Amino acid sequence: RSTHLVIMLTATENPLQDFFDECPLTEIAKDKSVLWSISSEATVRDALEELKNRRILSLPMMDDREKFIAIVSISDIVRAIVMDKSFDKFASGRVRPREKDIRVLLKQCTVFRRTISTMVGNTEESKTFRVFDEKTPFSALFRHFSEGFHRALVMRREGEGPCLISQSDCVRFIYKRMMQESGNAKVASLAGKPLSELSVLYNVHALSIKDTETALAGFRKMLRWRAFSKWNLGAIPVVDKKGRVVANLSESDLRGTDRASFVDLLKPVVEYLRTTHGSVRTPVAATGATTFSEAIRTILEEKIHRLWIVNKDGDPIGVLSLSDIISKFTNFDWAHSRAYELALDFEQLPEPEPYPVEEQRKKRCTIM
């Protein structure tokens, strides 16, 4: 197997950290549509259906007084489903379920009947609910996102109501500004840099799943690896017997799952993806020679949230996430360097608890 390149970034002053200081969030917020929300009394099944129908990954949650109290995402729900104790027997992916096992699973699994409010706090991101004013400069939101957060609620002043701004929204805005400011030497320097020089290459083979393993094993591995538990990438590459990336398993694949279909998680991952989507999408990948601007354009055109980086043999050697892109315009670049360090030892954590009890969760949720 080829040698994998590892680049560790030292803390340095970022020449572009002030690039968006004069740009208020209004630049994005003014064009955002109606905010879709969900009642805290809605069920997990309701939320999964809503996420699928709206083609979104999160929903602000409101209480019975129509007050926003949290943002619940697919990540919170994924953790509850795949870590459900009814799945423990099949966690390794080596035990094939019999018809009797399926009946027991369907009887034991209650997560879909739980209220969505019980999902809040399952991930680090949903423990903190941050609200920004539309006049806040992008640089403040970028710092928030570069730390691994994926979305924020923004309050608008002109009677248009609040809106949700995501990392994808920010990356679209970044690319637009980069094209407008292409004559800026600092911007041009970053735009033309190959990914091999941007601290996004590292050994991800231990953070992949074989195409013969089950989807359940893949999702649990996604939660269990130290680098991913500290930094929620929300996906894992699927590799064939030669180690080449052949598919992508992401949290969004669980949208629309219900009590009848969740047992499909026990199928081999490629079969699961085919059952869920009708086909397996060819993974979009880049190489170390791909430039920063080319990579962003690919992410936007393909409407994806991360770009796997492969070598000439198709082996995964890194990943460019939306957090990576945003962090290049903050003084917190690279936000997840510690996750890279942890990835080097390939140490697995014990199985995480399925979810805290409701009273513990309430104490951990804060609004900032």
What can you tell me about this protein's structure?
The protein is an alpha/beta fold. The strands form five sheets. Strands 1-2-3 form a three-stranded mixed β-sheet. Strands 5-6-7 form a three-stranded mixed β-sheet. Strands 8-9-10 form a three-stranded mixed β-sheet, covered by helices on one side. Helix 6 packs across helix 11. It starts with 25 loop residues before the first helix and ends with a strand.
Describe what is shown at a glance.
The chain has 368 residues and is α/β, with parallel strands linked by helices. It has helices at residues 26-29, 44-54, 74-82, 99-108, 138-146, 167-180, 185-191, 215-224, 226-230, 269-277, 292-302, 322-327, 337-345, 358-364; strands at residues 38-39, 58-62, 68-73, 128-129, 131-133, 151-155, 163-166, 209-210, 235-239, 245-250, 285-286, 306-310, 316-321, 366-367.
Q: What's the story with the biggest beta sheet?
A: 3 strands, mixed
The whole-number mean of residue pLDDT values reads 82
DSSP summary, beta strand count:
14
Structural class by helix and strand composition: alpha/beta
Helix count, per DSSP? 14
- Largest beta sheet: strand ordering: 1-2-3
* Gap between N and C termini: 47 Å
- Rg, alpha carbons: 20 Å
Q: Unreliable segments (pLDDT under 50, ≥5 consecutive)?
A: 1-12, 226-231, 335-340, 342-368
**Fraction of residues in helix:** 25-40%
State the shape: flat
- Helix-strand sequence: HEHEEHHEEHEEHHEHHEEHEHEEHHHE
Q: Beta-strand level of the residues, as a percent range?
A: 5-15%
